[in-house]
Structures are given as C-alpha cells and as structure tokens.
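Memo to structure team: turn this sequence into structure tokens by end of day. - J.P.
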Amino acid sequence: MRKRAAFALFSAVAALAGFATPGAYGDETQTDVQMSDVTFDGGKNIVVGLYAKTITVSGTFTHPSGIQDADFVLWRGPDGANPYETYDDRIVSDQYYSHADCVASSATTSTCSQTISLEPDWKYGGTALTNAHAGTWKVSAQGVANDDSWTQSASYTTTRLQRDSKLTVNAGPEPIAKGKTLTVTGKLTRADWDNLDYRGYTNQPVKLQFRKAGTTTYTTVKTVYTSSTGNLTTTLPASEDGYWRWNFAGTSTTPAVKATGDFVDVQ
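Reply from structure team:
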C-alpha cells in the first residue's frame, strides 16, 4: 500500500480510537471517492455462541482513478473507561484492525470485502469478547483511490452484536386426561462470553404458545417470566391434542428464539 493511503487509513482508525479532535467522529468526505451499499454480515444481527464466528462486511467504491484499498472497523463509544473502542481481526496497538480485499468490476469501481472474526475465547494474545461487548456497534468505512485520494464515513451504518440464545420446552405428563393439570416447563439460556458456557437469562418475558394437532399456527396462551436461573414453569388444564412451545422475542443483546414444539396426547 502507498504511504499516503496507509497514513489515511491509520488516521481514520486513530480518530475512532480517540486520538483526534471531536470533529473526526463525524462523516468526513475528503475527495470525490464515492461509497455505497456498505452492509455488515448481510444486514443481519451478529449472533455469537461460545466459539469464533467470522462475518463479512463489504461495500462498493468508485473513483475515476480506480480503487486501491478499503477498510472497515467496528467501534463504539464513549462508555467511560474505554471511550472509543474498536473491534477488528488483527491486533495493532490494542485495537482490532485490518484491510479489505477489493475486486474491480470496472476501471473505476470496486467491491471491497473484509472478514472479521469475533471470538469469545481469544487464543492469540488479543482481547476476547466479553458479555459487555453485546449491543450496538457502529461501522466505519473508508475507501482509497489509486491516486491516493480517499473518503471516510465514521458512522456509515450500525450492527448489533448478540449473545446466542437457547430455549427448551417440556409438557407433561403424557398422555394426560382431559381437564387434568398440564405442567409446561423450559429454560432460556444465552452464551456467557465471560465464563464460556450457557447460563440462564433472568427475568425475561417468554410467551407460552399452543398449536392444535392438524393445524399450522401457534396461538399465545400466556406470558411467563424466567426465574433467576432462566427456568420457566406454568400449569393449565389439558384440553386437546397439540404442541406446546415457548417463544422468546429477544432483546438488544440476545436474539429471539423459539423452542421446538412438544406434543401432548390428551385422552
């Protein structure tokens, strides 16, 4: 990479890390390099369990001289002790930082993509994901032309980093006589990046839903809150054959999840 382009890319990340003036956090179009269609992991939320997950961020860049390089960085702030935190897949001065691969579609336009590996258990001396990392992150994007002109948007878009969730259900006894008390239990857990296991998600509203045998649609019967360990339990009179499940709508840090329906034979 040319020195001037490398300096521009470094300056952009340095600005996000808090080493520049406050104005650097806004969008900064330096030249006529055009940037569009920046998407992070296809526009989906990033859901990470207990193992590394690699996602792709990409964008289209156009300039009369052609495109030489691009860069994308996850960042957020301020949050107190670490006011401007960046996340990427190569360590440079305690920041995660790398460059994109650009493929030209014409003499003036390239599509540039970059992979980022998010790891709860970082084995190579970097900073692992912690529970505190879950939430909304901003995406900085920058493109560099062959004549060394460049453009940068510090907050082109946002993405949401979430802790993977699991939900179970068990309805019984089975079979059960009509009118007898049916007990439906379950558990809502999510990835704990601090301890590298799944732990109960406390005090969350979860819908109990029922689907009559021979039909395709679930209907919400009631809402139950999880216990301090993520457990769910409720009772109701058995009425007819069908499937019971729990349905969690999700939060900003945890994705929605539905349990697989548990069939109960009512006699």
